Amino acid sequence: MSVNIHKRKKITEAQYLVMERASETRHEFFDAGLSRRASSHGCFAMRIGIDYTSAICQAAGIGRYTRELVNALLAHDTDDEYRLFAAAGGLRHRPVAAGDPRPGGAGGLWSPTVGGLPRRARLRLLPISDRRMAALWHRLRLPIPVELFTGRVDLFHSPDFTLPAVWGARTLLTIHDLSFVTHPATVHPLVLRHLHAAVPRSVRRADHIIAVSEHTRRDLMAWLGIAQERISVIYHGVDSCFRRVEDRDRLAAVRARYELPGRFILHVGTLQPRKNLPRLIEAYAGLLAAGEGFGRNAVGTEGRLGLVLAGGKGWLDDDIYATIRRLGLESQVRITGFVDDADLPALYSLAELFVFPTLYEGFGLPVLEAMACGTPVVCSNASSLPEVAGEAALLVAPTDASGLTAAMRRGLTDADLRSRLIAVGLARGQSFTWEEAARRTVAAYRRSARGGKK
């Protein structure tokens, strides 16, 4: 989520840009009738609006969720029409191949289908930044209806926590987690203030809510008082590109690109407090201190076991770097920065162990991606992780550094355990698909639409 911290003069300018764009397309709203043709399944086809902003502004996390879900919807829902829009002001337009869900590069326009949208889908880019758009809708609460950008739609889906103003469509909202309620100290103060104001209001307005896990559903019920019947649980999928990489040239290229050590434990995720990385670094230091061929005295660079933290710079991350310095691990811990989606399968395949000791997670997609690539997993037993990992990972309390060290040692040295985790993990990772997520999402659209117009 992004928050506007600009002055009022700039907001007024942004408001002008939005309304200018809206006036250009107002006739489309009034001229376009609802999509009431019969579908191949005997029900009425719909025209569905989706806020695609996160897909082009966020490389990981919710951006990845939105890109993958929209790709799957356009590939598998052949009955309905889709009207996408994105607040894209200030982004450099770098289209990528149709059907390719990978980002087009840092600062680029991350759209899976620019130049290749099917005829039943359209994407409109607005000349305003996502921060200014969020400020207009959620800080100033200007009643600028989303239909001015999508045209008339039967249903509008926001995949990123908050709902804009909507004139007449039914509304569906995806909630990924409630970390801003349960773990407020891990959220940037500006974002925290925005979420506390905008999310409860959006949840109350939504006709239906998608939770990405049973744990998130329970949090919505417990913390925000949402009735169970208003919530559908729809899991993320794992893209089919996540599988064991055996190509030596591809592996070598990724190792060189990110300057990876010969052997390493891997974590994937934005550098932020909720990921519990200082505790992981402490547990890693305990592993090195125990010897067993992992530490500084191992022979050659191939013998030393490194720790790779792969992910973009986040917020409130000073403690991560301080912990590395305090423990003298500057030469053992490699922080790669953001890793392109296309390089992730090779990165997972190169790792000896994947470790994910998060304090709280709405879903935890990297756990399944690592499993799908045949890498043994150690992960937290908190929040949604037991639900997602099942019996395919070693689970440990995220606050227990010594327990994490012990689990990592077992995952690295117990050959029978490694074989079992790899086999069960491969099956687990392959059981979550974006095709199934799209099918369930369309079903949620139809349930919501059956409620009638507002």
**What separation lies between the terminal Cα atoms?**
27 Å
Give the biggest beta sheet.
7 strands, parallel
Number of domains: 2
Quote the average pLDDT.
86
What Rg, in angstroms, do the CA atoms define? 23 Å
Gross geometry:
globular
Within the largest sheet, what's the order of strands? 3-2-1-4-5-6-7
What is the CATH C-level name of the largest domain? Alpha Beta
Number of strands: 13
Q: What is the SS-derived class? A: alpha/beta
- For the record, what is the CATH homologous superfamily label of the largest domain? Glycogen Phosphorylase B
Topology-level CATH name of the largest domain: Rossmann fold
Uncertain spans, ≥5 residues at pLDDT below 50? 1-35, 93-115, 297-301
Number of helices: 18
Instruction: Name the CATH architecture of the largest domain.
Output: 3-Layer(aba) Sandwich
Name the beta content range.
Answer: 5-15%
- Percent helix among the residues? 40-55%
Break the fold down into its secondary structure elements and pairings:
Layout (H helix, E strand, L loop, with lengths): L7 H24 L15 E5 L1 H5 L4 H15 L4 E7 L33 E6 L3 H10 L7 H4 L4 E4 L11 E6 L3 H4 L6 H17 L2 E4 L2 H11 L6 E3 L14 H10 L5 E6 L8 H13 L10 H4 L1 E6 L7 H9 L6 E5 L6 H7 L2 E4 L8 H8 L4 E4 L4 H5 L4 E3 L4 H13 L1 H16 L3 H16 L5
Parallel strand pairs: 1-2, 1-4, 2-3, 4-5, 5-6, 6-7, 8-9, 8-11, 9-10, 11-12, 12-13
Helix pairs in contact: 1-4, 3-18, 9-13, 10-12, 10-16, 14-17
